[in-house]
């Protein structure tokens, strides 16, 4: 018998200014909840309509000890990092960056968006790395929308884009260091989906359009449901339908020392991260064309 996960806590995202001054809806972390191990942060960027010359991003900044995952729903961003990776992301594209031992990167609107403006909407999720992988070499996986497996239920009322994990008989194309589920679900009214999420995973559902029933309880736009014990996540579209991210992963259950862009296990490792960044050991972004 599948054991449907109930909602253990329901959290409302708060609004926050980030990077060069863009507004995010942030359901994690919130007051009283630092993380849902292994997830450190869930930011919804926008949707925001930029006028020409107004689009802002996050210029050069470092990370160490975890992964940043960007998923663009609308707009265009450009990425460059000190490990030599460059990428342009458009609607539906995903970038899974393992900062590991350390990178300096810039996440900016594309030149065209900076010039002409336009709509920006997307997610950034931070996935923690276990102690044994915190100093792993940086890795960059960029997937275009067409490379992300998607599937629709037999009745056409449930649709999923599988960025990580498996659902509706399809599996993700991306590689993760530890078992992670990252899926974008769209449920039409009366649509229904059940997703196997192993009992050893922590799991959350963040609704970012409409409303869904998660287990038996309603979750509205901008709310994140933290799920309790079970091996199956049940999503239903109810009267309105809605869209949500399903995130799950095996917790590391390790001490966490966190300061800004660095997430380590001890305070001494945070101090070391600052030293390494300030002395240039995380590198810098090479100028265009070099
Ligand atoms: Co960053």
Any idea what the CATH superfamily is called?
Jelly Rolls
What's the number of domains?
A: 1
Distinct ligands, ions and cofactors found in the model: cobalt (II) ion
Helical proportion, percent range: under 10%
Low-confidence stretches: none
Number of strands: 25
Q: Main beta sheet: strand number and arrangement?
A: 10 strands, antiparallel
CA-based shape = globular
Distance between the termini: 58 Å
Radius of gyration: 19 Å
Strand content: over 45%
Topology:
Blueprint: E1 7-12, E2 14-18, E3 22-28, E4 39-50, E5 58-63, E6 66-74, E7 77-81, E8 86-89, E9 94-98, E10 103-109, H1 111-116, E11 118-128, E12 139-143, E13 150-152, E14 158-164, E15 166-167, E16 170-171, E17 180-187, E18 192-196, E19 202-214, E20 217-220, E21 223-227, E22 232-236, E23 242-249, E24 257-259, E25 262-264, H2 267-278
Antiparallel strand pairs: 1-21, 2-3, 3-4, 4-11, 5-10, 6-9, 6-11, 7-8, 7-10, 9-12, 13-14, 14-17, 15-16, 17-23, 18-22, 19-20, 19-21, 19-22, 19-23, 24-25
The structure holds cobalt (II) ion.
